[in-house]
Amino acid sequence: MTLEITFLGTSSMVPTKERNVQAILLDYNGELLLFDCGEGTQRQMNIAGFSRARVKKVFLTHWHGDHVGGLISLIQTIFNGEYHDTLHVYGPKGTKLRLEHLRKSVDFENEIRLEVHELNPEPREIITAYEGEEYLVECTPMRHGTPTIAYAFVEKDKRRVDMAAAAKHGLKTGPLVGKLQRGETVEFKGKTITAEEVTYVRTGKKVALIPDTTLNDAAPLLAENADVMICESTYGGEHEEKAAEYKHLTAAQAALIAQQAGVKRLILTHFSQRYTSVNHLLDEARTHHPNVELAHDFYRVTV
Ligand SMILES: [Zn+2]
Ligand SMILES: [Zn+2]
Questions:
Q1: Residue tagged active-site, from 66, 212, 227, 297
Q2: Which one of the ligands is nearest to 92 CA?
Q3: pLDDT tens, 74-103?
Q4: What is the pLDDT of residue 131?
Q5: CA proximity to 265, closest of 214, 204, 216, 208
Q6: Is 283 an active-site residue?
Q7: What is the pLDDT of residue 11?
């Protein structure tokens, strides 16, 4: 199992010399899940060394330009290449119509296979946007003045065989071990062996992504006990009024959500371009949570 996060853009609103606008790639066992796709995301993927053909799902948080400005060009490039799958795009209310407009805005020579999933959870409601065998993606609404969704990638718990314990019963890999791994009880050489005796459950990983929002109580609910919580942190405490006016979070507010949610690790991103250094945001956040990092473009995190 490999789960790696790469920040492709960490600025809010406009790109700076050091930071591009929003996009976060989650690489789960080689499958790429892209969260937002600001302008210039394709080039950031080139620099980071990711093939666009590996992107299978795109999750949009909301339709502000810094989060979707690179979407149509990414779609065009994907289907100009050797892409045989359907690209699944998830987003808040209005995503279907907006994508239709986007598709009409450029000429496509190739067939494009898009499946658009519009997500419309009620306030404070957590719904499943996607569920597969290995993981699911949950979402809940934020408060940002336009329909906005926060996501959580939740890997499923997995039962693993303790081969040393199995060997004590004389068991080697084979169909019986397979049954035990599925939680079943087996008979072997006249003895009953239960799954509990020779297996253990490996808890799945959880990554929460809290995008543009004001403080709200759905965010800590969604992020509860996450291994990593990525959170917007547009402003420092000196701009708290601006944060409220433009419906964004300060670093301390982001850390408060992380503290309430009991997350292990907090990574701040989506910084206002006004700051040449964001180190004071780190100090502010650390007053509420002990384990905080600042994202920068191409920052990679193994979960
Ligand atoms: Zn934004
Ligand atoms: Zn926004």
A1: 66
A2: 2
A3: 999 999 988 889 999 999 999 999 999 999
A4: 98
A5: 208
A6: no
A7: 97
* Domains in the chain: ranges and CATH: 3-157+203-302 (3.60.15.10), 159-200 (no CATH)
Residues 6+ apart with CB under 8 A from 136: 128, 130, 154, 156
Please report the pLDDT score of residue 173 as a whole number.
80
Q: How far is the CA of 235 from the centre of ligand 1 (A)?
A: 12
Q: What values do phi and psi take at 235, rounded to 5?
A: -125, 165
Q: Pick the ligand that lies closest to the CA of residue 214.
A: 2
Distance 67 CA to ligand 1 centre (A): 6
Q: At a CB cut-off of 8 Å and minimum separation 6, what does 196 contact?
A: none
Give the residues of the chain that fall short of pLDDT 70: none
Q: What pTM does this model have?
A: 0.93
Q: What's the gap in Å between 168 CA and the centre of ligand 2? A: 57
Q: How far is the CA of 281 from the centre of ligand 2 (A)?
A: 19
Spatial separation of the C-alpha atoms in residues 241 and 211, rounded to whole Å: 19
Determine the pLDDT at residue 273. Answer: 93
